[in-house]
Structure formats: C-alpha cells, structure tokens
Q: What sequence folds into this?
C-alpha cells in the first residue's frame, strides 16, 4: 500500500476542485450566512453535487451508488475544506451511508441508500448528549415496549439535525452510562411524535440541532444491527467520519496557508514584502512541514480504512488529533500574518478559523483523540 | 499613617453610602461599561448616579489635580481607593480613552489651555474621545501614515483616512496623528492634533470583525478644518507623543488582558465544567495544558506586579511594556483556546439565548486580535531585541 | 511586600559576584572535573566562602551564623548559578541548616549549627530512594529497638552524600509507603556501622552517593522532631531548597542567555553579525521575556518563604516548574545559537546545560511541581 | 514475480547459512559498528566473516553495478534483501561514509577511472573515507570556505583547515572541498578533490564533545600535494557536487534519527519505567507530552514513507529533504528530553557501570548537535521558505 494518490483519485480531485470553485466557493458560504437561510445549505447545490455522484460515493452500486471508497470520500472532503462548502455530504453521504451499510437491515438499506445516493434524503446521526464527544456516555434510554421501544432523553449538537428526514439515534438499551455495552442504534423518521428539534446557530454557520425525545415510540424493525452491540460498529463508522473530517481540515489548513503565502508575497511594509521577513519565513516553513505531516497521516488513514486494516482506529485518532493541531495553527497564523485585515469579517480568512474549530471539536477534539491514541498504545 | 487610616475609613463609608447596588455586580455585557460622551444613553439610573457622584469627587481620575477635574489624591490614597472599590466589587464609573490615553499625554505634552479645556470634560465623561493612529496599508509601519494636514494660515486642512479607530462612530472628539511635513523623514513630519468629530468633512464607517462586533471604524477626513490652537506639542514633533502613548497603550493591553476573559482561574472553571476525580481534573491531557498555562499566567501577573513595584522604586523602562504586551496578549489568546477546549461544542455556539454573556466563540475570535492591535507581537519582539537586548540591526 | 530587591541584598549580590568571579569561575569547575577530584568541590574555596559568612547565612546568630534570611541565600544561589560554583553550600548551609533549625533538638543544634556556620561539617539529606523525587514514597525502615532504632534500606542520589560528616535520614517509622504520615528524621554520623556509601558521577560533575543502610543502630536522641510527623517540616524545608534551586537556575539561565547575546553580537556569518537575523532576535526576545517572568516568580517565592506566607508551597512549585522550563530553553537555545562550537567540551556553554538539567531534576522536576501546583489549586 | 520469489528464497537461505549468530543481535556499543579501513581492528571474528561474505556478493552496496564491487541488484531485489536482513535482525556488515556519501557522488559525477579505482574498495571496506567540508568561522555559510588548492602543474598544493571532519583521525582518504579560484564569486571557485590522509602535511586533532565522545576532528593541511587526476568533476564546479551530497546527507540525518535513540516506543518505555494504572501512565502530565511527541513521531515516520513512495512514483524534490532533516532532528532532540524525564536522576549519570549502553545523559547531550550538524534547523527553514514556498529574499 504505497502512500501515494492514485491517478483515478487525482482525476476525482481535479473534477471536485473545478466544480467547487465554480459552484461553491467561500463566497457561497458567506451568502448563505448573510441570508439567514433556514437550511444552512443550498439545496440546489446539493442536487448538483448529487449529479456528480458525490451523495452516493460510499453507497454500493446495487443501491444506486458509486461505491468509490473512503479515499475518494476523503479527497472530496479535503476539497470541500478548501472552499468551506456547506452541504449534507458529511452527515448523510458519509456517516449515515456508512452506518446503514455496516449495520442497516436489508429493508432499511433498500429503502434509504438509494434515496441518499439520489440526494433525496438527509439522514443525521444523533449521538452525543453533552458539550463534548463521548460515545460511551450515552444515556438516552430505549425501553422495550410491545414489539418495539420507547425512547426518552436528549441529544445535542446533531449535525444537520434540524433539517434531516431521518435520524439514526444511539440509545442505551442496557448497561450503565459510561460503559460500552448496551448501546443500540435506531433509524427514526423526524416527523415521529414526541420528537422536538431546536436549531442552534454555530460559529461556522452550519446546522446543528438539539433534539428532545419524549416518549417516542419506535417499531422493533427500526433497530439497526444487534441489540446492545452498537458500540463497535459505531466506533468504526465514527473512525470513517473522523478520517474524513481530518481530510477536510487538511484542506482548510492548506487553503488558509496558501492564501497566507500569497499575502506574504504581495503585502508590503517598511518598503519590502512582509514575506521577506525571516521570522515569517521560518514560521511559514514550520507550518508547511506540519501540513505535510498531516497530509501523510490523513492519506495513510484513508488507505487503511479502505483496506479495513486493524490499525485504522489508532490512525483515525492520530489523524483527528494532528489535524486539530495543524488546522488550529494554520488558521491562527493566517490571521496573525494577515494582521488587522484578517480580523475583519469582510475578509474571508475568518471563515476558515471558524469552520476549523468546529471540525476540530466534532467527534472528538485533540484531547479526546490523543488520549485514545495513548490508550490504544497501552499507556 | 494615621492620615491614611482616616482616609480609608472615610472612603469606605462614602462608597458604602454612594455606590448604587446595581454598580456592585460584575460587568457581563457590553452595555455595562459607561463610556460617557455627548450622545451617551445610560443603561439605568444607577449608571448615571454613580458617574455623577464619582465625578463630583474627581474620583473618575483620582490622581489628576483638582483644577483638571481630578481627585488630587496621592498615589497611596489612590491605591486605597482602588482597593476599596475592588472590595465592594464596584464597577468603574467611567471607561474612557480620554482617561487612559489622551489624559496622560495632555498632562505631559499639553499646554495649560489644553489641559483646562479638555481634562475636566474627560473626567466628567462629557466628551468621548477616539484615537486616530492607524491607516490603511500602514499596518505595523505606523509612521508611514499619509493623512495630511495643510497649513492654511489660521487652520489646518485635513484630508485622508484612518482605520481601526475604536468607537469612532460613537466618539465626540479625536486625537489624531497627521502629516504636516510630507518632505521630512517619515518620523519627523508628524503632528498631534485634537478635533471635533462633528466637524464638517468627518465621516465614519464601522468595521465588522470576525467576532461579529464592530468596535472599530474606518474614519474619513475630507477637507476638515482644524483650528491651529488644537495642535498639541510642537509642529512636526508629534511622533514623540505618539510613542509615549503607544508605550502606555501596550502596558494597558498587556495588563487589561487579565480581566478580558471569564474564568479568572482556568483550573477552577475546568473543574466545575468537567469535574474532578481524586482531586485532579477528569481530562488529564487538558489538565496538562491548563496547568502549564496557569503557571505562565501566574508568572505574568507577578511580572506585572514587579514592573509596577520597580517603576515605583524608580527603575522601569518603556521596553518592559513591550514584553508585557507580548506576553499578556499571547497568554490571553492561549487562555481563550483553553476555555474553548473546556467548553467543547457549547463554546462554539454563535448565539446563546440562555446566557447573558456574549458566547465564548466570539470572545475567542476577538482574542485573536490581541496580538495584532496596539503593535503586533512581532513588533514587540523587534523592540525588545533592539532596545533591550541591543542586538544589531538587520540590513 | 514590594517585588523589588532591597539595597542590603543588592550589596550582598555585588559582593558575591566579585568573589565568585575571582575565586570560583566556570573554569574552576572544569579544573575540578578534569582533576578527578575525590571531593567534587574545592575545600579551600569552601573555607573562603565560609569566611564571607555564607556557610552560616541561614544559621541563627546565637549558633554562630549570620541569620541573613532566605532571600539572601537565594541571591547567593543565583550568583553561584552564574558561575556554576560547586560547594556544599546547598546541601549543608541551606538544606541541613533549615532542617536543623526547624526540627533539630536543642542538643543537635548546639553541636552542629556552629560547625556548619564555621564550614567544619558537611551534612547531607538522604531522602529519595528511586530515580525520581517522591518524598511520600519513602520505604527505608526505622524499627524501634531498645532505646533507639534500627535502620534498613537504601537511599539514592544523596547530594554530597559521599563526603558528608553527618546525614539527615528520612525514614519510615509508621504508615505505608506512599502515605505522608509515619515519616521521621534521624541525624546520623556517617562513620556509623552498617552504612555503605557509593559515589556516583553525575553529568554536572557534582557529588552524589547511593547509601545502603544495613542494620544501622541509632539512639533515640538522634531523632529530629516528632516521631511519625516529619512530612510537613520536610516539605517546608524542601520548599526552601526548591526556591533556592530555582534561584540558582535563574542565574544559570541568565548567564547562558547573556553569553549567547554576546555571541550573537560578535559572531559573523554571511557577512553580518548573526544577531541581526530576525529569527534569532525574536527567539532571544522571547527567551528574555521568559527569564524575566522567572525572575519575578523566584523573587516572590523567596520573599514569601522569608515571610512564612501560607502561599509559599504553591509558589515554590511554581518557581521550580517554571525554572525547569526556562533554564532548559535558555541552555538549549544557547547551544543551538552557538552552533558547532557550543557542542564542544572546550567551550564552556556545555557546563551550563549539564548543571541546569541536574538542578531541574533535583527535589522534583517540571512534572512533579506542575502536578503539585494544580493539586494545591484544586484540579 | 516468480523471479522475485526465487530471489527471496535464495536470499533467505543464504543469509541463514552465512550471517553469524553474533551479527544478529542489536547494536548497543560504538564498537558494534564495522567501519572498515586500512587500520581497522574487528571486534570479534563474526564481524570479519560477515563483512567478507557480504562484500563477496557485493551486498554491502547491493544496487551498485558488479564491476564497481556492487551486487547489481534491481531496486525490487534490493528491497527484498533489506527486508530479509531486517527479518533476522542482521547488523549492517559495513557502515561507511564511502557507501552513504562519496559512492553516490562518484556514481553521478566521477570519471570511469575514479569509479573503478575507489568504488570496489569502498564496497569491500578496505578504505575508510571522511568528508572535508566545514571550516572554522564558516559555520552555516559553508560556501565561504578558505582552504586553498593552488595549481602547481601536475598537482594541487593544499593549505588550510577543516573542522567537524567525522572520524578524520581514523580515516584513510578524504573527499574535500577546496577553493581553486579565490577571485571567483564564492560558489564558483570551489572544487571537489579526493586524497590520501597519509599524504605528507595532513594532520588531525580530535574534538571532544560535551557528551564526552570525539567523533569529529579538526584537520590541517600544510602544503599537501594532491595529483591533478584526483579532481572529481570539473575544476571550479565542485559546489554542485557539494550540494548534491548535502541533500543526500540531510535525508540521511533526518531518517537515521529514528534509530539513534533507545526506546523505539516512548510510551512503552515510560510504562515500563514509571508504571501504569487503569491503562494509563501514572505520571499524567508527562504522558501528555509523550503522546504529543509520539503522534508527531508517527506522523514523521509516515512522511518519510510517503516521501520515499513519492520519489519512487517520480515526484520527490531536494527541498523535501530539508523538511525531513528539520523535523527529524527536532523530534529526536525532543525524544531525548522525554527519555530524560522518564528516567529522572538515573538518566543524569555520567558513568554507569551497570549498563553496557552509554549513559542516557550522553545520548541526550549528543542529540543537541542533531539540529546543528548537516545544516542547522535555521538553514533548513530558510531553504524551505525560499525553494519550496518561494517567499521573497530578504535584503
């Protein structure tokens, strides 16, 4: 498994780059934000992405998808990270598609995967319940009732939650909060009685919702996978998501860095381009090295997940932790090196630091993944 | 010493009597700060009363002379007043660039007329001042400023543009650096002018920051007439005043960073939000970064204290202010990052109806400007290298 | 308590500076090292220091000392940190004198304090038993026997242990290893039967010894302070030692920095002084700021200990942790900025990094004190 | 593919038969490395046998052509050989600057005569080479070298001094940069010469390092006569060869840092020395620094892997070597610091009779040179900024 991008993937990347530059540049996110859009993404744009096959990139061919694999999905995320393009791609085409593939019942797959591939359904994952990522700490209770279950509890910061057609809900059917066993997944339509959605406005102008479950009744066949045994497949799917987020953050870091380099070459102060100052040169060179390291890690992680390697989970944590460090540094340095103009909303660089921070926090921050990395390594 | 004890008792009694209850709560919102000025609307009667009473004693500027609207207090008395104010948790009666910046400059460089005219109105919060220093394309190279003031006999004619003017849209007067000799070397053709923002030809445009707030403006001067007597100090010698003020500003930014962010003790904040087990924070890796930061923070506070004590003892140099500005702002940014880490996704909300304070995300974004405004960290390090360490100039 | 050095202390510092420059510069340490000296310090020099009153700087006047206080002792350490002067000053005049004052019996004080003040006795503290500092973890057992005790166990890295006349031994008389109660201190002559000393050569060319205790019999009146209650006075004395070590490290950092600045001004490369490179200027300016922060912390800690403030222990940990960071940075930067010549033994800067590392490790490294700082603060 | 399988089997069988047991243990002491050369004393018969056998097959330099003493292997075969050697934990039969540095340079720039004369003797470990690059007062400004070579008809006359010559006191020949045109711009008057260290007028003096070891020398040339045919490449064009070698050296230093320090996994080392509780290291704060480092280390290893794979795929640039050298050496220093923290006072011993390996303190001190030798970290960052990022030159 050579650590290089294949030609096939290079083509995908080029196509994505061209498409996003034309249809979803950073200015599109600005427009979306300033128009107080109820969706937080542009449905027409999402349809165009779907026509490119992106919505079905992880969906098997027999369900109408491209089945292009995780490396391809990661590359798309990287390019979206460069243009900060908002869409349900991550929540639906990556997270929901992966979970459905892994643990969906055949009926669920048959019904929902073609819809996902066709860009006709937005499916959100309702996972965490507090301010930080903690898959083991789930408390939302699903109690057996008749041939189904009744759900009570709360979910927070659910990506694309307020506009989803369906939610995949991680619930506790056994064990205590804080333990890994006793978790189960349910697939639920968002118009079911007892569900209450509350949209929250996040710093990156994307969509999340807090969801309240009050006596929500679901049928037995809404269960995904085995009862009480959702933790492992959930972690697997989360690792795919973490790798893809890392790839997005790599794109964001690279783009912020390249914009900064351009500024360093052009902006003059004290009569010379500021990029000729040795201090800024060294900091840029250091940042370049960090981004290159992240690039190696992300590529390795995507390749490893695609090959279903045993080391994938340790790599996913490495990628997510390293991505948080690097994109944090890249976007902070971008603002500092741009000086005052970097602090203005009129200038685009602020969008990068905002999205970078949310992506860093999503599905585990630096500390979460550094801890997981060390635990996997036995210390 | 007996005098100081009496002073303490009297101050305590007066404050007890005169500081309204509403003024004894921590400031949480932007409108909790009283900036004063011609068009200022108080947020509640308590604010008005408190300013009126404090200004009445000259205690908005306790060490200024009484003839300039001050309290005429000795440094020891002022220290006691400060302590007593802190003891009851009193809010400042007035926050003002006039007090922090222009006042000290006028006391040092202004004519008697200037002092008499401007200082009492600053002390009473009648005139709100802004600072016209930065210009577009100047950035860290402040002295390259281009706003020109032409000598027209009895007045100067001002044309040009300033940027990063704090609250220019809400201010009554500006103290402003202008170029009065375009042919002189860049530091030697600059003058320091005061003028009314209501003058014909002055316009302002707020700059929206990434944090969503707009504390700064672009300010435009289009044939603005300024009477000659509004010149402070000598013609073409304004750079000396500017440098004096910049040093002053650096110290203020370094020091004020301390109270800028919530959670005066990050460890305690983290313990409350995240919880502890066997006496240590549950998130061990985050704890490592918090303790590293908290130790630096403690060291910084002690360095501020030492700088003040040394200044009192007659040491103290302008270059120390560069160090304090550099450390204080870098630490403040780090502090904001750690607060974000402590608060997770909750800290990333852009709006939060449940909390009266501005969302943490905005404070975090705002903190990124700390190491840019008032001279970037890079400029501060240049200054330390050259003025303190006497390292040779590059080519 | 203003954070400034008093005039009296300034005079002491000036005297020390002059004395050490003349009698104990860095070259003296080199000579000592290269001569394979059996003591690891120069007894004649120690006699001269004694004549200056240094050996008795913490000894009360009634026992023949100067009683000049902890701030003065710290300033002397700072100056010794600049010249890397080796002597029993720290082990004997600071640690042993402080412990004797705090918990010595009157007879012990009367006998030993005047000897210390006169430079006639070297007294070592035998405390730790492993590779790291851990006052609570003491295992060396002192069992009651007749009217005295019998000691069995081992001590490691005892400063000046191999040449001491007496050792103060921290032993367990109760409680379990890892607990704070049940510790006691004994004052023992080094020629007592059952004691075996083994000198170890450390990287800084100072003296330490590992000591084996095999059925060592001591009398009841060799106990210092109260039985089982040594932990608290021991921590107090250690805090004095930690503050003084921090002060020494401040001196070492300052001197290494000043030597580096001198080199930056003089050394030319690419036709210009290397100190004109902006990158080195910024790193020097940052280091300057760090050293100034350490200076504030050390001064505050010494003043606080002298005033017996309650906050002293938290400050001592702050000082020791910060000193380790700063002197580590200062000496590493010194080598890097000196380039190849900094790596040669012929050049003096290597002595600074060696001593800095040992001082950083002695009585608790960065991690030990950062942890203690946080625990005291409640997290 | 069938051929490669046969090759694997044969190689495996041959190694099993021919690699002495003593050569299958990890290297721990300096004398475990076989440097060869005229005066080399083997430490045990196993070393001699292993070199003889490997050199006999040309496998000390497996990809060099057979006529130059190499094994004539394809890259795929060489990779298999490497893997098989690693599989049985075999020590290198020969470590040599001739193999790592001079060899590649001669293959690229040497005449056929040079290759035939020198390469086979390098491959067999008969001649030990050292590198004459650095000079006193040159430091990072390598091209300012002053050692001069005067044209005396049939020979050059060399006068000058080199410094940081690795093992000059133990080497037989030197490859050396000399100034052949003192009037030309500094990069254009340099030539690349080979000569015998036994020549009259050559003397060496070991430099003792702060770690106590003396791997480098000062080397003096006093009227040394060098035959003209010992010039490699064109006269005054030696800088190109030097740059080629420097790039090569950077890659080597960056990559070799990996095996330089004990404790391939810091976390495991720490867990063993300090102990764990509930699966995490007992020293939580140290753990935070270890995991941060270990993640960077893993990222660095993956970047090395990617650089190699990209080079194979035909990408790869010289400037990447600067990045690898920079990161690799900085991380190696950090690793040494963490090993010291793990080992406490034990790591600070200068002598340790109980352990056959050199004390950790010396390895830590030695690591400080990593970011100086082979081009400082500052030089590497300059190179990245200029050649990769295309940032403008300063004045």
A:
């Amino acid at each position: 498994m050579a650590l290089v991008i294949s030609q096939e993937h290079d083509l995908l990347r080029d196509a994505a780059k061209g498409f996003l530059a034309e249809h979803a540049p950073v200015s599109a996110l600005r427009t979306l934000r300033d128009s107080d859009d109820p969706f937080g993404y542009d449905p027409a744009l999402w349809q165009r992405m779907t026509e490119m096959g992106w919505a079905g990139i992880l969906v098997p061919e027999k369900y109408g998808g491209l089945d292009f694999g995780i490396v391809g999905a990661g590359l798309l995320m990287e390019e979206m990270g460069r243009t900060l393009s908002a869409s349900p791609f991550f929540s639906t085409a990556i997270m929901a598609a992966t979970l459905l593939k892994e643990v969906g019942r055949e009926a669920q797959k048959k019904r929902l995967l073609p819809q996902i591939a066709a860009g006709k359904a937005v499916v959100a994952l309702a996972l965490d319940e507090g301010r930080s990522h903690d898959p083991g700490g789930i408390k939302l209770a699903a109690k057996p009732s008749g041939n189904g279950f009744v759900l009570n509890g709360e979910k927070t910061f659910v990506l694309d939650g307020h506009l989803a057609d369906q939610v995949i809900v991680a619930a506790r059917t056994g064990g205590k909060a804080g333990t890994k066993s006793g978790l189960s997944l349910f697939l639920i339509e968002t118009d079911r009685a007892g569900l209450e959605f509350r949209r929250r406005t996040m710093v990156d102008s994307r969509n999340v919702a807090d969801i309240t479950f009050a006596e929500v009744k679901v049928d037995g066949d809404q269960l995904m996978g085995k009862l009480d045994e959702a933790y492992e497949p959930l972690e697997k799917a989360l690792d795919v998501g973490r790798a893809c987020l890392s790839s997005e953050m790599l794109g964001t870091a690279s783009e912020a860095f390249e914009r900064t380099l351009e500024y360093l070459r052009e902006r003059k102060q004290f009569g010379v381009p500021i990029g000729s100052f040795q201090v800024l040169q060294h900091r840029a060179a250091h940042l370049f090295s960090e981004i290159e390291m992240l690039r190696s890690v992300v590529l390795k992680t995507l390749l490893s997940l695609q090959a279903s390697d045993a080391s994938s989970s340790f790599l996913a944590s490495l990628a997510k932790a390293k991505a948080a460090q690097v994109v944090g540094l890249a976007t902070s340095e971008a603002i500092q090196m741009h000086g005052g103009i970097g602090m203005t909303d009129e200038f685009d660089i602020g969008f990068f630091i905002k999205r970078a921070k949310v992506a860093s926090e999503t599905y585990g921050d630096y500390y979460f993944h550094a801890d997981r990395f060390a635990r996997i390594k036995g210390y | 010493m007996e005098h100081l004890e009496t002073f303490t008792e009297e101050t305590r009694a007066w404050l007890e009597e005169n500081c309204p209850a509403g003024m004894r709560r921590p400031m949480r919102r932007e409108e909790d700060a009283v900036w004063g000025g011609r068009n200022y609307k108080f947020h509640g009667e308590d604010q008005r009363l408190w300013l009126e009473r404090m200004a009445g004693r000259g205690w908005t500027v306790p060490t200024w002379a009484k003839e300039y609207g001050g309290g005429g207090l000795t440094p020891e008395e002022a220290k006691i007043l400060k302590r007593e104010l802190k003891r009851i948790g009193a809010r400042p009666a007035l926050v003002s660039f006039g007090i922090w910046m222009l006042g000290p400059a006028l006391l040092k460089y202004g004519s008697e007329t200037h002092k008499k005219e401007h200082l009492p109105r600053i002390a009473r919060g009648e005139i709100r001042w802004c600072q016209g220093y930065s210009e577009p394309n100047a950035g860290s190279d402040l002295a390259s400023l281009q706003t020109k003031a032409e000598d027209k006999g009895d007045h100067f004619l001002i044309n040009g543009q300033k940027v990063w003017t704090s609250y220019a849209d809400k201010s009554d007067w500006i103290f402003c650096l202008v170029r009065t000799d375009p042919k002189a070397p860049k530091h030697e053709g600059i003058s320091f002018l005061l003028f009314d923002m209501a003058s014909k030809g002055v316009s302002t445009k707020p700059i929206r920051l990434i944090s969503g707030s707009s504390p700064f403006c672009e300010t435009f001067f289009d044939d603005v007439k300024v009477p000659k007597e509004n010149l402070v100090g000598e013609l073409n010698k304004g750079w000396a005043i500017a440098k004096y003020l910049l040093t002053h500003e650096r110290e203020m930014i370094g020091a004020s960073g301390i109270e800028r962010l919530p959670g005066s003790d990050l460890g305690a904040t983290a313990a409350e939000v995240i919880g502890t087990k066997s006496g240590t924070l549950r998130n061990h890796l985050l704890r490592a970064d918090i303790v590293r930061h908290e130790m630096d923070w403690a060291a910084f506070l002690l360095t501020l204290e030492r700088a003040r004590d040394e200044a009192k003892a007659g040491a103290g140099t302008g270059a120390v202010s560069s160090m304090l500005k550099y450390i204080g702002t870098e630490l403040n940014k780090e502090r904001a990052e750690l607060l974000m880490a402590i608060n997770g996704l909750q800290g990333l909300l852009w709006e939060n109806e449940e909390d009266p304070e501005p969302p943490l995300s905005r404070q975090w974004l705002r903190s990124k400007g700390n190491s840019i405004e008032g001279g970037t960290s890079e400029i501060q390090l240049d200054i330390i290298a050259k003025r303190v360490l006497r390292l040779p100039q590059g080519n």
User: Anything to note?
Assistant: The beta strands of chain B are 129-132, 148-151, 155-166, 173-179, 190-196, 202-207, 216-227, 231-232, 276-277, 280-281.
